Each structure stands twice: as structure tokens, then as C-alpha cells.
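We include the pair:
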Amino acid sequence: MNSVFVNYRSSDEEASATLIERELSARFGADEIFRAGKSIRPGEDFERALLRAVHRCDLLLAVIGPRWLDAPGAAGGRALDDPDDWTRREIAEAFAYGITVVPVLVGDAGRLPAGSLPEDIAPLERCQYRRLNHRNAEADIELLAETVAELVPGLARRAPAAEEKAGGRGRNTFNGQARDVYQAGTVNEYRYGGIGSVSAEGGTVIGSAHGPVHTGSGDQINGTRVNGPQFNGGGVNYVAGDVKDGGRLNADVHDRRGSRERGE
């Protein structure tokens, strides 16, 4: 079932309608957001699919750009004056079924003048709107998503936001305080200068280390020690793992010449 129907005119703001649908799908789930170009399967009766989707939705978003009101129809004249114009029919069906309609004014599109619409969609002139300005798209989309969640309460954040997916930001508690935490993938990249920073893109970067680096638990073993390792050569770097069984080193050892031996 599609909870939100995205209505638009292809000759006006189709790209904006696609952006709205994709952003809302990312937040609430693709199956909850209907857009004709995405949601109608090949070979399906598009008229039945459109009417069924309108009748079953809880909210219709009417995407309105600067060309929406006066866009010409296929037979000449204004498209909105044709009773078979699908942009008009979808909105009219929503009003007839008591479905909430929210105009989304794109760019420089202004409010619809009183008396400018056919009678079956005239209530659209009085509907409170939201705006999408591409110079402020992130904030406008977020406000629109909040409006959708408010008007369709059961829809609220059914799918994780993009920032909470793998490699993104989340929340965790450290020493009793909530902190932002980042989950990062593995990055294989040479960086000169030692330890780098933690970020959403990278994680902790260790590069060009010229001494022992400890990443496990237990004591760090450096140099000569009874029953411990002694490594000689052209500037050996090694990574110590967990130290167990009386100080035996469980780690791989690399030298700068590319040789490799296993510490036991």
C-alpha cells in the first residue's frame, strides 16, 4: 500500500517530483511512496493503477512549479481545463475521497490565484503549502518529511535515514553521555605522518609508522625481553596483538623489505 502519492505534471517539475519521491522513499520505505514513473509496472493498466493508488493513499503531494498552472494541453488550450488531464484527475479524486492534499511549490512558483482552477480542484487554492527551493533543498526536504510524518503518523521513519546506514553516523553513549559515533569501512590508502583522524569516510588511518604499534590487549613488547621477540633489520615495524601465555606474541610481523614471518 502506498501511503503518499506524488502528483506532478511531466512538462513542469518532473525532476523535482522524482527528487521528492526518492528522498521520502529513503526515509519511509519505497513501497510507501507512489510516483507513476516508478510505481506502475510495464504492461499494467495505468488508469486503474493511478486511481487505485490515489484511493488508497493517506496523503497526496501536488508538486507545482512555475509552468504548472498554464501548461498547454495536447489538444490546445490549458491542460488543467481538460477533464481528462491526469494531473487534474488525481487531485480531484483525492478531494472526492477526503484525502489530505498538500501543494509543494517549487522554486519561484507562487500561490495559486483564487478562481484560477476548475471547480473539482478549486480547494487546492486554499490548501496550506510547503516549498522546495533547490538552493535550500536539504532543509526543505527535511521539513517536507516532517510534515509527511505528522500527517501520516503510522509512517514515521519506517526505514533508516541514509546517515544511519553503513558508513554513516549514529548515536551511542560514552561515560553516561550521548555522543555521535561513526561507522566507517576499511580504507586501504598510504598516508605519510602517522595516525590520521576518524571520519564517516575513513576511520582511523595509520600510515608510515616507524616503531611498534599496539592494537590488541596486554603489555606492549618492545625490543629485547626474556622469552620475548628481538627483531633486527632495516627499521622493522610490527603490530602486537593480544599477549598471552607468558608473553608470547601473536601477531604478523613485516619489515620494509616485504619479508614476513609469524611470531610464535
Remarks:
- Residues 4-159 form a domain with the Rossmann fold fold (CATH 3.40.50.10140).
